[in-house]
Design goal:
There is one protein chain. This protein is an all-alpha fold. It has a domain of 75 residues: Alpha Horseshoe (Serine Threonine Protein Phosphatase 5, Tetratricopeptide repeat). It is 67% helix and 0% strand.
């Protein structure tokens, strides 16, 4: 009887912790650079290498694990509903071992093949980086870079991995090694420029990103990164030109307006949202922001007009995501 009571307490504790963790996960702020997030909402590409999301939301999977384990432990009927817990079930629970959960924050140690070539380590490190397994990526990419100091991509991706760990100095060193080997690699210049940008060195960021744009004049990611850095220097008209080159005048206007709004320059943001509205009268995002901003600055008639225009857009016509 005493044993059953202890097991019941353990079960209640596990469920409480899992529920608390799930609540915390749903209230966590959005990850990534806030400026990049702001313009990515309009479909703009910015930043460095993007992590692939394999196998769905890992946080949800980890948090669901205790419930799935209990389901397997206590059994389900044909209707997939949990059955009443029996004494035999409690004994079964007491014999269940603890299993380590693998995720991006708790990765298994990288298995390094001592006989692998630099390019093989590079390929493995690249895969780890795309999967979000940053510690393992750093191990593999460091090995690749040490085996072949002329392997530009190894230094470049090692910089990306260090940036994701918040190790700005190591990231910059890796990028600069890559640039030294290959001075006209636009991707590396972009990553170096974005690293400077993330660490508040906006003039250095603009310098590297301008060099990258000269090498790849139509690269959307580089153009948007340059636009973000110019915004941080207060050069919004120049920023608009690069945002517009990246994805057209409509998206350029929306992105510039979003950045102005982030900096508290509401009336200037309104001008760019109105430009977006003229380019696309059915831009639901522009109309929503105009309604909110006009209300915020006390222009109630304009706010009402924007809300009415938004309400009048047919669902099949409204610009998706805007």
């Amino acid at each position: 009887m005493k044993k059953r009571r202890i097991i019941a307490i353990v079960i209640a504790f596990v469920l409480t912790i899992a529920a608390t963790a799930m609540w915390s996960a749903t209230t966590t702020e959005r990850e990534g650079d806030p400026d990049v997030n702001a313009i990515e909402d309009s479909g703009s590409d910015a930043g460095t290498v993007k992590e692939q999301k394999k196998g769905g939301n890992k946080v949800v999977k980890v948090l669901a694990a205790p419930f799935k384990a209990l389901g397997r432990l206590f059994g389900r009927g044909d209707d997939h509903k949990l059955r009443r817990t029996t004494e035999k079930d409690v004994e079964k629970f007491a014999s269940v071992g603890v299993e380590r959960v693998q995720d991006v924050h708790n990765p298994s140690p990288a298995k390094v093949n001592a006989m692998a070539s630099a390019k093989e380590h590079l390929a493995t490190g690249r895969s780890y980086l795309l999967e979000g397994r940053i510690n393992e990526a750093i191990t593999e990419l460091s090995t690749a870079a040490s085996l072949d100091r002329q392997l530009t991509e190894a230094h470049n991706l090692l910089g990306v991995a260090y940036d994701k760990k918040g190790l700005a100095d190591q990231a910059r060193d890796s990028y600069e090694r890559a640039v030294k080997v290959e001075p006209e690699d636009a991707e590396t210049l972009n990553n170096l420029g974005f690293s400077f940008y993330q660490n508040g060195n906006y003039r250095a960021a603009v310098d590297r990103l301008k060099r990258a744009v000269k090498l790849q004049p139509t690269n959307e990611r580089i153009l948007n990164n340059l636009g973000l850095a110019l915004c941080r220097l207060g050069k919004f008209q120049d920023a608009f030109k690069h945002f517009a080159r990246a994805a057209g005048p409509l998206t350029g206007s929306l992105n510039t307006a979003r950045m102005l709004e982030r900096f508290g320059r509401e009336e200037d943001a309104i001008r760019y949202y109105e430009d977006a509205r003229r380019l696309d009268p059915n831009s639901s995002f522009a109309l929503r922001r105009l309604a909110d901003l006009y209300k915020r600055i006390g222009h109630l008639e304009q706010a009402e007009a924007a809300r009415n225009a938004l309400a009048g857009i047919p669902a099949t016509v409204a610009t998706a995501g805007q």
